[in-house]
Design goal:
Strand content: over 45%
Radius of gyration: 12 Å
Distance between the termini: 28 Å
Shape: globular
């Protein structure tokens, strides 16, 4: 169970059709991380973030993975 600023979120090993912003250090509810926002390649809206580095040992499994926030996604036909 993952949560973003807008509610329910999902952790993925890989995502497609995104661009990545510059890496920044953020204090999150699970500790300090180096993350980068990920944006939809089509509409340019932020849809989540990528974990580059976790400082807590228990959070290392997130490194290199992506969070997509359900509320920020839309259906494309």
């Amino acid at each position: 169970n993952f949560r973003g600023q807008h509610g329910k979120a999902y952790l993925f090993n890989a995502v497609v059709n995104i661009s990545q912003a510059e890496a920044v250090e953020r204090n999150m509810t699970t500790g300090r991380h180096v993350v980068r926002d990920i944006n939809c390649r089509q509409c340019k809206e932020t849809v989540g973030w990528k974990y580059d580095k976790a400082f807590e040992a228990s959070e290392k499994y997130k490194e290199g993975k992506y969070i997509l926030e359900a509320e920020l996604l839309c259906t494309v036909y």
